[in-house]
Amino acid sequence: MCHLYGNLLNTYGDVGNLMAFEYELKKLGIQTERKIVSIGNDFKESDYDFVFFGGGQDYEQSIVKNDLIKKKDEIVKYIENNGLFLAICGGYQLLGKYYNDAYGNKIDGLSIFDHYTVNQDSKNRFTGQIKIQVESFDEICLGFENHGGRTFLSDKQNAFGKVLEGNGNNGEDNSEGFIYKNTIGTYLHGPILARNENLCKKIIEKIFKENNYDVRIKTKN
Ligand code: GLN
């Protein structure tokens, strides 16, 4: 497992997503290893089965963006090869075109996806509990959001969830995050995989199925 910029972008215990993953796999007798891949480190797509990119402050995002671009080609390959990639909040924003931060700076994203993120008037932030319906995994998921950014998807992108309570991408169109192949971008801290155990199990099951491992994991109703 790769924790992208885990020493810079790791707000609200986002590392708990990796821990939740490790915990579920351990119960199946599968050992995992995780590595922080940060500024100056090579990212080789074939080295990983799970890439996690967490959220963070505007300042850290502005530092990360300069290094991130050097990893773009391998990240694109990883995503296109159906690799499991989870990006939360600041990480999610950086996969898109740009993020206009709270100080009026434009932080360029990787432009792998078409979404873009603008800020809010009067430095407002979307904070609080959030509840979303995730159709692709047939789950209602809970989380916590805290973002200044308002993200808009392009017509070609599919939202990860539909907002039932809270703000999600932008507080306007009820969309939350995006999903493409096995890449998920979302604003849900929580950490989402720890707080939504069924989602974590269903993601693992999907990846196993695609790789021809025959494992069934019991989910709770
Ligand atoms: N700094 C970004 C914002 O405020 C991302 C926040 C986060 O990752 N929690 O929108």
Automatic annotation (TrEMBL):
Known pathway: Cell wall biogenesis; peptidoglycan biosynthesis
Gene3D superfamilies: 3.40.50.880
InterPro entries for the chain: Class_I_gatase-like, CobQ_GATase1, GATase_3, Lipid_II_synth_GatD
Keywords: Cell shape, Cell wall biogenesis/degradation, Glutamine amidotransferase, Hydrolase, Ligase, Peptidoglycan synthesis
Domain CobB/CobQ-like glutamine amidotransferase: 2-196
Keyword Ligase appears in the UniProt entry: yes
Domain of life of the source: Bacteria
Positions with a binding annotation for substrate: 125
E.C. numbers: 6.3.5.13, 3.5.1.2
Catalytic activity, as annotated: L-glutamine + H2O = L-glutamate + NH4(+); beta-D-GlcNAc-(1->4)-Mur2Ac(oyl-L-Ala-gamma-D-Glu-L-Lys-D-Ala-D-Ala)-di-trans,octa-cis-undecaprenyl diphosphate + L-glutamine + ATP + H2O = beta-D-GlcNAc-(1->4)-Mur2Ac(oyl-L-Ala-D-isoglutaminyl-L-Lys-D-Ala-D-Ala)-di-trans,octa-cis-undecaprenyl diphosphate + L-glutamate + ADP + phosphate + H(+)
Catalytic residues, chain numbering: 89, 189
Function: The lipid II isoglutaminyl synthase complex catalyzes the formation of alpha-D-isoglutamine in the cell wall lipid II stem peptide. The GatD subunit catalyzes the hydrolysis of glutamine to glutamate and ammonia. The resulting ammonia molecule is channeled to the active site of MurT.
Record text on subunit structure and interactions: Forms a heterodimer with MurT.
Protein name: Lipid II isoglutaminyl synthase (glutamine-hydrolyzing) subunit GatD
Species, as recorded: Anaerococcus kampingae
Phylogenetic placement of the source organism: Bacteria, Bacillati, Bacillota, Tissierellia, Tissierellales
